[in-house]
Write a structure and sequence with these properties.
Two copies of one chain form a homodimer.
Chain A lengths: L5 H12 L3 H12 L3 H14 L7 E6 L6 H15 L4 E6 L11 H6 L1 H5 L3 E5 L8 H15 L4 E6 L5 H6 L4 E6 L14 H4 L2 E4 L6 H17 L11 E4 L8 H18 L1 H27 L2 H15 L5 H9 L3
Parallel strand pairs in A: 1-4, 1-5, 2-3, 2-4, 5-6, 6-7
Helix pairs in contact in A: 1-3, 2-3, 2-7
Chain lengths: 328, 328
């Protein structure tokens, strides 16, 4: 008999709905598993808690390495837990992280008070290609956390690759952190990221940095002025803040509240959620179709060789694609 | 016997390599065909001319409807044919166009002198989903035109959807046209487009518009200043121009030449071409995998129904995807 009887699955569902962190973590680990069977059980648990999701505010927090995302989340997270949130979850998409199997040691050292907070839950996404892809996993984590009663979910990304596009497709509000300066802080960030942000916060606006931060604030305000209103009807803005002094965190929270009020009243909130839901289904289909193809032994063997041939123009991309598609 | 004997294919190849516009058009029509057999013959022709491609400069020209893309291409195209280019091809990706089967009437009326020019070739991409997708088609057109001796290829897109991302993935240089004003001209453009442009040209800088155009130029310069150098090592810039007076076209050409010189010497030119080649192969694989899936009768029947169920939360995206993937 399978170690996962229906009774055990029901127990998982119960415990998650009651907010048990250990069962929540174990369910996420099942979903992240490379074993199709484990993942399948994870999906069954997720299916069962789906009716209890949808109630949180989901926020992406993106910024280049060094901008101070962890300090920001540590202090803002604690602040939100006092003012706004019953329960806060922090999920990190870090493509460079070597974390696996749900170890949260890395984040424990980074967000010391938050990780000890009774009403907070911190979980990094494992690195590497997994069965469902990082996007699907983080999305699934969001839903499990919602089912476990988390009403505010922060998704942390470093914004250097596909991760912030993934994040954009699963959050309600996108917050971009940048350092004071004149554009250097965008170094290494994926181009296009400024234009998808709902709010830009200039971090480390304290001490000698304060004047430079205010200069950057005005530069970004001028730049944002060039873009017209996004579909949400919300005008993205800029402000300065400091995780050291706590300055400016209130303002970001106020803007977040205004954004939620505006988009919930103009219908964009629900529309975005619906679109994301449909996009998620298409994403799963795409990922599964590609996985099935890439897992063929002949493809695994030939793909790297053929890619080299294409790069060196020994074969045309058309012929290469057709050869690979013809493999059994 | 097939109407396309090897001899006929060889004739196509010969005529295209000699620059015959009629054979070029007919080959493009074959590639655009909904009939798998026609398309397959088109691909065979393309395969055979592939060794003669790679020699052109490929430029995307993007801008919202009303910005004056056609006038710009008409006058700049003629200008380039005098100064820079032996042969110029203009390919348009227009998602709203109802053009099919290679009719170029629409563009003939839009670009009157250019369309009559002996050394110019104008071809719109047909609308709608075709076997290879618009991206693949336009890419194939580019290659056929190169084989036919076109050394400058302009790809016109309206920049409202996926088309400019597609264009970005197949050109060397990305030119964005905007109207004088303060951001309103970006209305309707896909967000993120400013950040992928290699050059921004403020159009219609003549008469009373001149001062507003110069103001916009300075606004965009300040905004671009916030972004750091793209991977190409090329600093994108802004200038004003007028298709009415011809003002500013020289400068854009000079910048284009500088871009080509820089990226050809720092290795980015070749790298970008190689990357695009590999991306093209992956694109064909993705498209074919998805087409094979979407063409299953059961999927065609159920997909619209299940999408509605997902939108209205009657079924979870996971279950929906699994149901569809399980169809024979």
């Amino acid at each position: 008999m399978s170690p996962f009887s229906d009774r055990l699955i029901a127990q998982y569902v119960d415990e998650i709905l009651q907010g048990d962190k250990i069962y929540l973590s174990k369910a996420i680990t099942l979903l992240e598993s490379q074993h199709i069977e484990d993942r399948s059980i994870g999906l069954e648990i997720l299916e069962k808690v789906m009716p209890f999701t949808k109630k949180s505010i989901r926020i992406a927090i993106t910024g280049a390495p060094g901008v101070g995302k962890s300090s920001f989340i540590e202090i803002w997270g604690n602040h939100l837990l006092e003012t706004h949130s019953q329960k806060l979850a922090v999920l990190a998409i870090d493509p460079s992280s070597q974390t696996t199997q749900g170890s949260i040691l890395g984040d424990k050292t980074r967000m010391q008070t938050l990780s000890k907070h009774k009403r907070a839950y911190i979980r990094p996404s494992p690195a590497g290609q997994t069965l469902g892809g990082v996007t699907a996993h983080t999305r699934e984590c969001v839903l499990l956390c919602e089912a476990a009663g988390y009403d505010l979910i922060l998704i942390e990304t470093v914004g250097v690759g596909q991760s912030e596009i993934a994040a954009r497709s699963m959050v309600d509000f996108f917050l971009l952190l940048v350092l004071p300066g004149s554009g250097d802080e965008l170094q290494g960030l994926k181009r296009g990221i400024v234009e998808v942000a709902d709010w830009i916060a200039i971090s480390k606006a304290d001490g000698e940095n304060k004047i430079r931060a205010e200069q950057a604030e005005s530069d970004y305000k001028n730049a944002l002025h060039l873009y017209t209103l996004p579909e949400s009807g919300w005008q993205p803005g800029v402000s300065t803040c400091s995780s050291f002094t706590g300055y400016g965190l209130d303002l970001i929270e106020t803007q977040l509240k205004k954004y939620v009020a505006l988009t919930q009243s103009n219908g964009y909130w629900d529309k975005q959620r619906q679109d994301q839901h449909l996009a998620w289904m298409r994403e799963i289909i795409d990922i599964e179709l590609k996985n099935t193809f890439l897992q063929k032994p002949a493809v695994q063997h030939l793909l790297p060789l053929i890619e080299q041939d294409v790069l060196h123009r020994r074969i045309s991309p058309i012929k290469a694609a057709r050869q690979l598609l013809g493999l059994k």
